[in-house]
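Translate sequence into structure tokens.
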Amino acid sequence: MSKNRQIIALFIIASNSLLLAGSIFDLHRSILEVSILIGLCTSGTLVIYGYDFAQFNQKGYNELVSNVLKSPIQTFFYFLFIVVIVPFAFFQLSSFRINTLLIICLFGLLYSVPLNFIKKDFKLKKIFYFKNVFIGFSWGGLILVGAGSCSSSIVLAFFLFTSIQVMIGSSIRDIADIQKDQNSGMNTLPVRFGIKNTVRILNALNLCSLGALFFALETNYWIVMALVFLWRAIVLAKVKIPKESILWTQTMNILTCTLLLLTMLVIKISPWIFS
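Result follows.
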């Protein structure tokens, strides 16, 4: 498996982890709804991250479509996403979930698609830290999609916590891409402040993410946030070590979302185990 496909596979695991983490708070969830959401999340992640929108300026539409069709797996998921899952979802999911998913998709496209009507080759992700905020709240929105509502304080707490954690994770990935971002004119934290100062800033942001504890009235879930906070601190310590940075800026960093889900599941089922 190529490096790019490995990253996309990790993104699919991570996005579904956040979706399922949110669904823990949905007391009326059904297997059908969860299955549709997993299908949407898997296919949608592949569509957004598997399609190189940045090449719109270099290649024609027909060539881009041709490149997509070269991969049977991508072609299958594109077909599944557009022809089957999306229409089915409109009939089965609540308007809240549909609207939130549409906003997430819009964010996912807007931050990378060239907006030539503003300026030639202008992209929102070139604005300092705009990309990371977009990514953070888009992925954090998967918590809301899974929960099916934003009326609960615990759901909002995890939405806020997850959004900040994903912002941090996105910035950590920028450390691995610092050379490429410098060459392409991307104004990221590592490009502007260097790796050491970026790690200091992200450690401070990691600490700020614990502010979500004030909204989480169910104290059991404080353990989840505390463990994710500690894991993130370990990742930030590791990315400063050159020989280990790729493993931690990519794989271990992205799997933070899976750690969040697994910890929440343990917290959820522990009363049944020890009762």
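Note: The chain has a mean pLDDT of 82.
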